[in-house]
Design goal:
This protein folds into 3 domains: 96 residues, Helix Hairpins; 48 residues, SH3 type barrels; 83 residues, Alpha-Beta Plaits (2-Layer Sandwich), CATH 3.30.70.100. Helix content is 50%, strand content 24%. The protein is built from 7 helices and 11 strands.
Length: 276
């Protein structure tokens, strides 16, 4: 019995350096996890990230560091790598089955950190255009312009071009017109400029453009560009105002718009003109 106790005490004494080292590694991992998680929280809060998401990401970082610290501490007593290798097969199987979920999860973290858009922004992703309602870890929810609620996987969002309309302080309005080829081009230009300057939200810079594009036996094609402040009006409202103002001005000055001419196949001849 005395010999057994002696061996036991000797084994404990021999293991003390490893035990102390393991305890120090674990304590250091706890300290490092706290410091880095608090640092991440401060960074995310400065970016106005949702508090729930901030705490979730901070907790993920904290537990990752703690788990690494535990693994490193246990490595002082046995080969943890061999043990983890055995678990690797199971982990690979589970990871393969959940790869889409994990891909969306990782994409959600990237979206939340980089913030190409935030809740309330008007964006376009793929063929969907609307206002962002929620940014979750796996999905982004938005309300399309026609009222539909669209839920997009974050992996789809981050792998395609994102157009953020809200971040643009100014937007360009484009108006194509076709007027009669008998109209005075300089008079047309002056009337258009006078009217678009009265549109709500019109800004002087970048400067407007009134460009004559083409001329044929029926029409003179005009392309009008001007910029508006999106905080004062939308592109759709600005276009609506401009068209109505230009139409009234043309009527007062007896400038006619060109009729729409289309080519239609006829039974008697190959084509004939129909004016709409």
């Amino acid at each position: 019995m005395e010999e057994y106790l002696t061996k036991f005490v000797d084994q404990i004494i021999a293991a003390l350096p490893n035990m102390l080292t393991a305890i120090l590694i674990f304590i250091f991992s706890l300290y490092l996890a706290k410091v880095l998680s608090n640092l991440l929280k401060r960074v995310l809060l400065k970016r106005n990230t949702a508090s729930g998401v901030t705490h979730l990401l901070a907790d993920i970082l904290s537990w990752t560091i703690i788990v690494l610290g535990i693994v490193t501490a246990l490595q002082r007593f046995f080969n943890v790598a061999a043990f983890l290798a055995g678990l690797g097969i199971i982990g690979f199987t589970i990871g393969f089955a959940l790869q889409n979920i994990m891909q969306n999860f990782a994409s959600g973290i990237i979206l939340l950190v980089q913030q190409p858009f935030k809740v309330g922004d008007e964006i376009q992703v793929l063929e969907f255009e609307g206002v962002v309602l929620q940014i979750n870890i796996r999905t982004t929810e938005m309300q399309a312009k026609d009222g539909r609620i669209v839920i997009l996987p974050n992996a789809e969002v981050i792998s395609h071009p994102i157009v953020n309309y809200t971040r643009a302080n100014r937007r360009r309005v484009s108006l194509p017109l076709q007027i009669s080829n008998t109209a005075n081009p300089e008079l047309v230009r002056q009337l258009v400029v006078d009217e678009i300057k009265n549109v709500v939200g019109y800004v002087q810079a970048p400067e407007y453009q009134v460009l004559f594009q083409s001329l044929d036996h029926e029409a003179l094609e005009v392309q009008i560009y001007f910029w508006v402040d999106v905080s004062a009006t939308s592109v759709g409202n600005a276009k609506d105002q401009a068209l109505l103002k230009i139409q009234n001005s043309f009527k007062k000055n007896k400038i006619k718009l060109s009729p729409k001419v289309v080519y239609v196949e006829s039974a008697r001849s190959k084509y004939f003109l129909r004016v709409i």
